[in-house]
Amino acid sequence: MYRSFKDMPVWQQAMEVAERVYSATEHLPKKEDYGLTSQIRRSALSISANIAEAFGRMHLLDKVNFYYHARGSLTETQSHIEYSRRVGYMSHEEADSLENALSALCLEINKIVVTLKNRKSDFT
Fold first, then answer.
1. Under 8 Å between Cβ of 36 and 76
2. Which H helix or E strand runs over 93?
3. In terms of pTM, does the model score above 0.85?
4. Are 18 and 70 in contact (CB under 8 A)?
């Protein structure tokens, strides 16, 4: 059992992705500061925030819902990255690297959800 959400590898992965997204968006055009730059950074940071919130919840279904929110933020981030690639704001290599990190993170979140759902079925 983890003592803090900061000890969780999945939270650490999510925070690393948020840091990478921040770095990848530093060079976006100034005109995107209140648009894409802000949106992609918020969605990427929301992944780790929702994982942290899930950690703090006591009820199993609350935990699962916050992992679903984290997964939703993750797919939103994937969409922003794909847009960035298509309009030429991000290189294919940079976008692929972030996409791979997000896909790996999604698998970890899915494993947690399955584990929690199985735990719930043990009590029903």
1. no
2. helix 92-122
3. yes
4. no
- pLDDT value of residue 123: 52
Of 41, 48, 65, 57, residue with least CA distance to 8: 48
Q: By CB neighbour count within 10 A (0-12 exposed, 13-18 middle, 19+ buried), where does 94 fall? A: middle
The CA distances from residue 64 to 13, 54, 83, 120, 124, in Å, are 18, 7, 29, 10, 16
Q: Assign 35 to helix, strand or coil.
A: coil
Distances (CA, A) of 58 to 9, 61, 111: 20, 9, 19
Residue 14, token pair as written in the block: 């999510």
Q: Which of 107, 122, 117, 5 is nearest to 64 (CA)?
A: 117
d(CA 22, CA 54) in angstroms, rounded, equals: 23
pLDDT tens-place string over residues 7-59: 999 999 999 999 999 999 999 999 999 899 999 999 999 999 999 999 999 99
Instruction: State the Cα–Cα distance between residues 104 and 10, nearest whole angstrom.
Output: 10
